[in-house]
Fold this protein.
Amino acid sequence: MKIQSIRGMNDLLPEQSATWQYLEKIVADVLSRYSYREIRFPILEQTELFKRAVGEVTDIVEKEMYSFEDRNGDSLSLRPEGTAGCVRACTQNGLLHNQTQRLWYTGPMFRHERPQKGRLRQFHQIGVEAFGLTGPDIDAELLLITANLWKALKIDHAVSLQINSLGTSSDRAQYRAALVDYLTARKSQLDEDSQRRLDSNPMRILDSKNQDTQALLNDAPKLADYIDDESREHFEQLCAMLDAANISYQINPRLVRGLDYYSKTVFEWVTNHLGAQGTVCAGGRYDGLVEQLGGKPCPGVGFAMGVERLVLLLDELAVVPDSIAQTVDLYLVAVGNLELEALVLAENLRSQCPGIRLECHCGGGSFKSQMKKADKSGASIALILGEDEAASGTIGVKYLREDIVQQSVAQDSLTKLINDRF
Ligand code: ATP
Ligand code: MG
């Protein structure tokens, strides 16, 4: 029996990696234009970190974490999200002491969910976090970054923004109590999942997909009525900033998010091009989290994008330029025991023409079979080195995609010919 990969943990094959790199490059470019810097932290952390950050009674911690005891008997977990580890790393290294930080990271996250389109057990996020800033201006900046990113990726027409305010944690506690009172009196009318959540995480009932539950919620207490003045003002200012920046959004009073640490602003970018897994980017403010993890109080706000979902969307909308699939400009064909000469020539060309991508044929074979490979490589030019060329210090230049006759070029002038073209 061949050993297979773990369900929900996919390989990224070379054919798809070009799209990933295209996405990652655009994201990194946009973030650097806003002066965000990359941070890297481990994939494995103490289980306690996620319990404290994400929350004991969230789906993630209750059901989805990959946790195990290591050889010392410590309970460790593969990270299910990035914010907890990012906050841990920043606190531990003193990055939050009397300073602000604008950071981003990327990498795999792990959740034991039911695998389906856009939902995996190992998936990838690009996360962005800003620390030390309390005002709605930084919330707005994060949303501007995302809006610009969608434009750069040419998917802005296919995504829309939903925002809400969750108030402070004490606002939420009061609201939660009122909601539980209301729903407990109507428990039998709730779907099964929501009945279970009534005890553990009642706010999550608000985003139940069940129609009857949603209908029941129409007359339920409204979170907006429980939010303190400061949070309300913060939210109104954020909306004014988004209006001024011409970012359209929808206020969704039932948007609550699945993690415990949020306060005030929460948001999601959603698309209807991906079926049920339509959220491509989600985040919010988490002013209490740093302190909750043992640091000095420090406000924070951030979001994470799902890379797989964004790639699905890019493919679905066919907005990735064809040119990214092309990885070779020139293919060097060498016939007649000239492997050594070919390697040397290829090295010289690479150093003298730094912009080119040159594949040097390896493994010998007939002229015909090498030319076939040259064509298949996608290169636009085949460079041909045979015994005649080697003797006369020339090289054959054959254009593979254009109607131009093959030329014989002195090896000395080859650099100029290539640099002029590429
Ligand atoms: P969902 O409601 O879709 O389960 P979530 O609220 O659990 O999402 P977050 O924890 O906010 O998601 O993660 C941010 C983003 O990461 C999501 O918007 C989504 O794009 C992506 N994501 C989350 N879980 C998965 C997964 N299992 N597989 C692929 N992408 C995921
Ligand atoms: Mg989820």
